[in-house]
Amino acid sequence: MPGGPPWWHGKLRGWGYRMTIPRQVILDLLNRSSKHLSAEDIYLAVHRTYPGIGLTTVYRTLDLLEQMRLINKFDFGDGRSRYELSQGPQWRHHHHLVCTKCGRIIDYTDFVTEEVKLLDKIEEALTKKYNFKINTHQLHFYGLCEKCR
Amino acid sequence: MPGGPPWWHGKLRGWGYRMTIPRQVILDLLNRSSKHLSAEDIYLAVHRTYPGIGLTTVYRTLDLLEQMRLINKFDFGDGRSRYELSQGPQWRHHHHLVCTKCGRIIDYTDFVTEEVKLLDKIEEALTKKYNFKINTHQLHFYGLCEKCR
DNA sequence: AATGATATTGATAACCATTTCCATTTATAT
DNA sequence: ATATAAATGGAAATGGTTATCAATATCATT
Ligand SMILES: [Mn+2]
Ligand SMILES: [Mn+2]
Ligand SMILES: [Zn+2]
Ligand SMILES: [Zn+2]
Fold it and tell me: Residue A129 Cα, ligand 4 centroid: separation in angstroms?
């Protein structure tokens, strides 16, 4: 691993948190994954190399990273929360297609420019009208994927 | 209650289901409410007049109505599912503002025309590109409401 | 490099929304 | 009215997530 500490190293310190092995390992996994991982997914993946890391710590770390807004937390309706890195080198703003039959999730970036333009406009108007400070948004399309339709 | 059976009466029969008292009562409550009710909310409200209706039946009925697409099921992130009628006399297409502090949910209809126009266009393109049959969508803005910001 | 304050961890148990089970009741076609 | 399958409700089970707490690891200070 060349090139000094990863990009998120300073973020944790900046928020006054310590840089621990579980946090590094979990962040590294999320950084290398392009999937939408559940807490258990992460626990199992991490467990192969670091059997000492407990599920509780996974949950705690995910909560922490979500509060720092380093990751996004989703509920796609399958009974468990799922997480993805919200920023980083290869990150792009995107939304989701969710198959209600098999649970497959497709990231799409088509039209995001147009979407984000409209959403920004809406955000601004809603902020004024309802005096509501908007931090994030989620747009999900639900339906049947190629295999399931 | 003048005017014959309510508008949803035929729907259940049309799907081959029986019209039972719990189903009538739950649908009537959802029809009269403008809130986003949890299963427990519904159970408690219904329980005052019909103490015999059990929580299990509430869950079962909500599942049924969701499958029939008479209601929408949401997860706003507070650990329980919430439901609203998806059609009916006073229904209008709308999206949601969710306060991450107090859980307040605001329905808004501003810009829905523009939104829906763009979303329809996106839906069409995504359907083609990913061979994905889209049934519904959800757009949530998360932030802090007037009181909490 | 050793120290000490305290942030963090991991195992276990608790929590709680939702499901499963199954005997009983109810709706409806005949 | 009767028969039959659908629907119900209470109790117990399930499963993802959170609370508890003693043990451990981090890191500013020495
Ligand atoms: Mn994604
Ligand atoms: Mn609504
Ligand atoms: Zn599918
Ligand atoms: Zn609020």
Answer: 15
Q: Which nucleotide is nearest to B18 (CA to C1')?
A: C27
Cα B38 to Cα A49: distance, rounded to the nearest angstrom: 41
Give the chain B residue whose CA is nearest to the CA of A137.
B141
CB atoms closer than 10 angstroms to residue B5: 11
pTM: 0.91
The total number of structural domains that make up chain A:
2
Tokens 């937390």 sit at which residue? Answer: A73
Q: Is residue A126 domain-shared with residue A105, that is, in the same domain?
A: yes
Q: Do the Cβ atoms of B121 and A111 come within 8 Å?
A: yes
Q: Is B125 helix (H, G, I), strand (E, B) or coil?
A: helix
B107 and B84 in a common domain: no
Which residues of A, range 63-102, sit inside 8 Å of B by Cβ?
A: 73, 75, 77, 97, 99-100
The domain spanning residue A106 has which CATH number? 3.30.1490.190
CA of A59 to the centre of ligand 2 (A): 30
Along the 149 residues of chain B, how does pLDDT read in single tens digits? 446 678 888 899 999 999 999 999 999 999 999 899 999 999 999 999 999 999 999 999 999 999 999 999 999 999 999 999 998 767 888 999 999 989 999 999 888 888 889 999 999 999 999 999 999 999 999 999 999 98
CATH of the domain at B50: 1.10.10.10
Residue A87 DSSP symbol: S
Segments forming the whole domain that contains residue A18: 1-88
Shared-domain flag, residues A13 and A69: yes
Q: Are residues B135 and A143, on separate chains, in Cβ contact within 8 Å?
A: yes
